[in-house]
Design a protein that fits this description.
The chain is of the alpha/beta class. Helices cover about 35% and strands about 25% of the residues. The protein folds into 2 domains: about 140 residues, Beta-carbonic Anhydrase, Chain A (3-Layer(aba) Sandwich); about 140 residues, 3-Layer(aba) Sandwich (Rossmann fold), CATH 3.40.50. The longest helix has 22 residues.
């Protein structure tokens, strides 16, 4: 069957990375919709990093300390496939419907806990990859939750304020959707734009992992936890799953006979994801999107599946 003839076209945009397969950085951050835009803006504007893999999972430091196979494998894949030289690791204050954490007695106690997790993760990353630079950023809410303050955390305990931005989600505890897509730097920005501009969804949790649904379909507890957090804590009832052509997690386009077989495979993976999510979350709706490379790889075309 010719799958290329099916699906509504959502958008077609230039492919900015023709012939480019390397990026300098992987950004690991929590999935929360209420912080993601500011954290990504900080990376692009304040740090000046335009091309980066986006690894979005809940509680990275905890998963890393547990030596999660998926977390360790993701860092290894990004290093091997995209030759990263830097990890930017984010953590933010607890997000709770009450507007503040219920786990800690004071803000100082919470800050120490989260910053301690960042520092412990940095030490472990350096043990595994001595030549990789690690930058630690902690985001907290200040001025009665009116602003987000981003500080760089150093292993000696010192910190430096890097950015202050308005907090746009005071009193808001739910988001419109959960977006699960591949961490690949070549598609990251265009995928987020497609979700906002073509699907009209402005607030969404960001889960970025190799191969999008691949780990979930293989039984990853980290991915199941991520969806559970979004569903239960952020009241998300819509899941957007985005796969893309030439995905390294599936061996790239060279692992398939042609683009039709490749798209067929990705559509099958998204259908499997859909069926398994609906088994767990009966009231969830699933939007499946595939990003093709067209016109000799010069453009990305996003289509509904």
């Amino acid at each position: 069957m010719n799958y290329l003839s099916k699906g509504e076209v959502l958008s077609t945009v230039p492919f900015r990375f023709v012939g480019v397969h390397n990026c300098s950085t992987i950004v690991a951050m929590p999935i929360s919709f209420n912080f993601s835009a500011e954290l990504l803006q900080f990376v692009e504007v304040s740090l000046g990093i335009k091309a980066f893999d986006l690894f979005g999972i809940p509680a990275f430091s905890k998963r890393f300390s547990e030596e999660s196979k998926m977390v360790l494998g993701t860092l290894e894949l990004s290093k091997d496939k995209h030759h990263i030289e830097r990890v930017v690791l984010f953590q933010h204050v607890d997000f709770h419907k009450a507007g503040h954490s219920t786990r800690f007695e004071t803000q100082i106690e919470e800050d120490c806990y989260h910053k301690g997790g960042l520092i412990a993760s940095a030490k472990k990353i350096r043990e595994l990859y001595p030549n990789i630079e690690v930058k630690l950023i902690y985001a907290r809410l200040i001025n009665d939750y009116a602003e987000i303050e981003l500080v760089e955390v150093f292993e000696c305990g010192r910190e430096r304020v890097m950015m202050v931005a308005p907090y746009k989600f005071q009193g808001v505890s739910s988001c419109e959707a959960t977006a699960l897509f591949c961490l690949d730097f070549r598609f990251r920005k265009e995928t987020r734009s497609c979700i906002r501009d073509s699907l009209g969804i402005q607030s969404f949790d960001v889960i970025g992992v190799p191969g999008a649904s691949k780990s979930f379909n293989e039984g990853s507890r980290v991915l199941r936890k991520a969806l559970k957090v979004s569903y239960e804590q952020h009241s998300s009832r819509k899941f957007i799953i985005v796969h893309h052509q030439d995905c390294g997690a599936y061996g790239g386009s060279g692992n398939f006979l042609n683009s039709i077989e490749e798209e067929h495979h990705h559509r099958d993976q998204m259908r499997l994801f859909e069926s398994r999510v609906k088994e767990k979350y009966l009231d969830a709706s699933i939007i499946k999107v595939y990003a093709r490379l067209i016109e000799g790889g010069k453009k990305i075309q996003f289509v509904l599946c």
